[in-house]
Structures are given as C-alpha cells and as structure tokens.
Amino acid sequence: MDWRVLVVDDKAADDVAETIGGNKTVPKPDSISCEKCADFFQAVELLKNQRFDLVILDLKDDGAPEQETLAGERVFEEIKKCRFVPVVFHTGFPHKVGDQTSPYVRVVTRADWENLRSTIKEVLDTKLPRLIRHIEEEQRRFMWESAERIWADDLHKDNPTDLVYLLARRLANSLSGDVVRSFFGSDGTEGAPKSEMVHAVELYIFPPISQHFLFGDIFEKKTSGKSEYFVSLTPSCDHAQRKAEFLLFARCADLSDSEEWKKVQGFLEAKTAPSKSAVNDLKELMKDNNPRPRLQDRYKYLPGTSFIPDLLVDLQNTLTIDREKLVSGEAGLERIASLDSPFSEYLQAKMIRYFGRVGTPSLDTDLTFERFKSRTMKT
C-alpha cells in the first residue's frame, strides 16, 4: 500500500517528508509518499480535489500576523468540513491542541522525529485509513455496477426518487456487513469472524442514531462506580408516538455470574483445562440455546464489545420506568447502543414466547401410557 500523506508546513515540510517518506516509517511492501504544501489554505483546496490517507499539519504560520486562532487550527476546522482524514499536528505548541487528541487526531512536538514516525505508524495500524480506502473503492464499484442496471431495468424513468432511495438502501446494506467482511479477508486482520457468521459488534448500532427510543435500546446506569445495564422492551411505535407513560425494561445479568461460566472458571483457577461439557454449556448459552431447558427463552445473550460487557438479558427480571424521568435524565439511565436488525426482532420474538406461554397442569403420562398400551394391544 502506498500511503499518500499531505504535509502542511511553511518551514519544515521538506524535513518532515524526508523523515517519514518511503520505508522510514512503514515496512515494505507499504511505503509513504508525501505531497508538500507551504500554504495553509491551499492545503484545503488540495484535500477537496485529491485524496490523502493522512495529514501532517503544522499549527502556526510564521509568516502570518499573530491571531488568537492559529492557522493550523483554522485549517483543521476546514478539513473537517470537506473530508474525513486522520490528522497529526506537528507543532512547537502542542498544548494549544492537546484537547483535540483522539485515535485519529494526534499531537507531536515539532522535530521529535522518532515520536512522529511512531505516531504515524500507530494511526495507520488502527486500520482506519485502510478501511476508508476500502469503503471508497466498494462504493465506486457498487455505483458503476448497480446504478445503471437498476435505472435501465427496474425503475420508471420518470421517478428518480425511487432510484435514490433504492441505491442508498442497497449501499447501506452492503456496507453494513459484506464490505467489512471483505475488508477483513483482504487485510488478513486477526479476530475476524468466520465468513458465514457475524462479529459481535454487528449486533449493535453504536452510538444510537435514532432520535426516538426503540425496542432493543441498551441503557447503562452508573452507581458508585459500578454499571448496571438494561434493555428496552417497549415497542418502538409506542416510543415514537409517546403512547407509553411507563416504559418496560429488562435487567441484564453479567455473563461472568452465570453457572456456566463459573464451572469453566473453576477449571481455569485450578490451572487445568476446562472439560468439554463445561465449555460446550457456556457456548450453548452464547448461542441462546440455554443448556438448562427451563431457562430456554428467559435469557438473551449480548456479546461483549468495547462499550458493554458480556451480558444476559433477563426477561424474568423486569421493571418499569416513568417515561418523563427517563427523558429528563432523572432515572439515571443513559442510552449507549441499540440492537440492530434482525437481532432486535429476535429478542422481541423470544420475549413474546416467554410472556405468551400458557401454563397447563402436567398430564399423568404413566396413566395415559398404560391406557394407550392396553387399548392398542387389544386390537
């Protein structure tokens, strides 16, 4: 991969390019090629018309008059308006932009060359620049292969709105799964799921994007430094239309408190390999195939990610919360994620089965067996 880096610096652009270019920062077969720009605001035009994988941005234009907002800060704001691209501030005033730091915005003190190289490598190792390239390529291919065929074969020419909606939904559906899996496959990333299965993160929309609360929203409540988790069981339409005065939630149990995990944990603490049956019972719980049949529909497993631990939605442990208290924040619950489709619908179907059970007295099967045997043998 040839990484294209835009170096924006009115004095040290040559030094930066010389320090990071070629294989001085990334190992072969990857390399870095630099586009140098001494004019801060010309850099914005370059970003509008060309694609770059990373921007190395000086903060102060020494030729400009002193201003409260430095040139690099203004350029950074313009960059955010026109393109998403990771940025590394390379400046003698790192304290000025320290609050901007994130996984894709980093700050390095000027002329700390070793730190600059390691920071660039860290940004590239997040795989974010590689994923951006991959998505852009998939989007280009999708539009050329899909738009013309759909327009020619499937839609009335006098209704372009249909084309826009259809293409947007198909592209979103493609990006939600297949594109990410193909990225993992081409990139050789460790931790990718098997091709026919899903990654834990695919169950969630994080952070939530709906303005309304939804069935399957996941909430966190922090108390004395500890977190409790809850899942909304109120139908989405009741949320959107404000039909429900009181909202139904299920508490989530921590998977680490389950009997299945404690059996495995016991083996591990004894420094012995867990038994196959103990491991299989835990995996069955993760598949929502509870090894304890009487609990089959009571629990729904939520795999752990960077934003929630491994949880079991407990449909027997429910509570209601006043809607106004939830909206105002008085209830102390913060919505952190939403279950995506079809996992939200799966939880709803499980809930309907669990709450819709009709209990009946047990049949005396010993008696019915004897009666059936007697009648059948006589004939």
UniProtKB/TrEMBL annotation:
Domain of life: Bacteria
Protein name: Response regulatory domain-containing protein
Protein source organism: Azoarcus sp. (strain BH72)
